[in-house]
């Protein structure tokens, strides 16, 4: 389905409560000002009689409204936040810097506000994000044959044990467990939604995830246990995946042809993942609709669970499943990413 707006009362109530579940799915045009906003906009709430609700920014433009300068409705919510924008720019400018709360305060920000803002949008604090980026860089150094001690120091860890602990927390195993001659290779890609880690052999892509996904370490440990040692490096599958991701984010590709591993998951899970790939880019389904699509209308909960078990993000598009009421439901990569992916795919309609 193309997203169908809920009734006026539901949307106006969401506007009054600044309900983030509709972010990227619904916008309000205010007749008295000629401005359109997110439902989460911090501005004073308009009178009920002045509100007009739309599904996309383009519909707001077509109706003659201009975007709000406070909530920036034509940008993803994360990018629109000035705190996030400033700190992410600083992180990009100094990726090797060992950031501290004192640095955040020196930039004129309240540290508790920054923690709350980043947790809400990314599921981690700014300091955790900065450390994770250094750890990813150390992973690349290890892949190039650098010594563990060099990767440790470059990542800003004075203690080898602290480095091993942090590395294991991110990837589920210590640096010494990553084997250079392993069949399965892991590498990171940079995307407009942040880095992704891809796991592949010479034949197929086996995993594509955002590194901060909460269950990623356990997921990698399971793969390590069942399929053998993992190592850093690249295969032709990595190159193909990265190339197609670049085309997708550039608006040039609405479907992926990367070969995917077919020997994991139950038969039911594989049926759901195939149904997800059959949803056209730019459209969404509720869990109930997805269950009906496979002829199992009472299996909504099982469908939701299979959706959550998907380990190949974007390519198996679990982000196309939303709540029955049109809200953005849970997404392991963060709701802000789900919002952005849905917005990107609207151009493919």
TrEMBL record:
**Record's PROSITE patterns?**
HTH_ARAC_FAMILY_2, MGMT
The protein's Enzyme Commission number: 2.1.1.63
- According to its UniProt record, what is one Pfam family this protein matches? DNA_binding_1
Pinpoint the HTH araC/xylS-type domain residues.
107-181
- Catalysed reactions, semicolon-separated: a 4-O-methyl-thymidine in DNA + L-cysteinyl-[protein] = a thymidine in DNA + S-methyl-L-cysteinyl-[protein]; a 6-O-methyl-2'-deoxyguanosine in DNA + L-cysteinyl-[protein] = S-methyl-L-cysteinyl-[protein] + a 2'-deoxyguanosine in DNA
Keywords, comma-separated and alphabetical: Activator, Cytoplasm, DNA damage, DNA repair, Methyltransferase, Transcription, Transcription regulation, Transferase
Gene3D superfamilies per the record?
A: DNA Methylphosphotriester Repair Domain (3.40.10.10), Homeodomain-like (1.10.10.60), Methylated DNA-protein cysteine methyltransferase domain (3.30.160.70), Winged helix-like DNA-binding domain superfamily/Winged helix DNA-binding domain (1.10.10.10)
Identify the catalytic residues: 318
Localization annotation: Cytoplasm
Cofactor dependence: Zn(2+)
Give the highest taxon in the source lineage: Bacteria
Q: Give the UniProt family note.
A: Belongs to the MGMT family.
| NCBIfam families hit by this protein | ogt
Q: In UniProt terms, what function does this protein have?
A: Involved in the cellular defense against the biological effects of O6-methylguanine (O6-MeG) and O4-methylthymine (O4-MeT) in DNA. Repairs the methylated nucleobase in DNA by stoichiometrically transferring the methyl group to a cysteine residue in the enzyme. This is a suicide reaction: the enzyme is irreversibly inactivated.
Any remaining note in the record? This enzyme catalyzes only one turnover and therefore is not strictly catalytic. According to one definition, an enzyme is a biocatalyst that acts repeatedly and over many reaction cycles.
What is the name attached to this protein's record?
Methylated-DNA--protein-cysteine methyltransferase
Protein source organism:
Marivivens donghaensis
